[in-house]
Amino acid sequence: MPNPYYLPELRNQTGKDQAVYDYVMNHEESEDFYRHLLALIEPILPGYKKKENLF
To answer: I need a labelling partner for 5 at 20 to 30 A (CA). Which of 16, 39, 47, 55 fits?
Structure first.
């Protein structure tokens, strides 16, 4: 995945800044990573939400 740290104009920004988000997400590798991450997490979210209601 691209690292915005190595671009001087993005170095002092965070992932909450739109310019950083756009830079990272405009690369195909980032889109692939995001899709795979969602596929991993989405199936376990209902169980996690259900468990959180027990406390």
So the answer is: 39
Give the separation between CA 54 and CA 40, rounded to whole angstroms: 24
- The pLDDT of residue 48: 82
- Residue pointed to by tokens 């980032």: 30
Segments in the chain below pLDDT 70: 54-55
Whether the predicted model's global pTM rises above the 0.85 cut: no
Tokens 């671009």 belong to residue: 7
Q: Where are the alpha helices (DSSP H) in 1-55?
A: 18-25, 28-41, 45-52
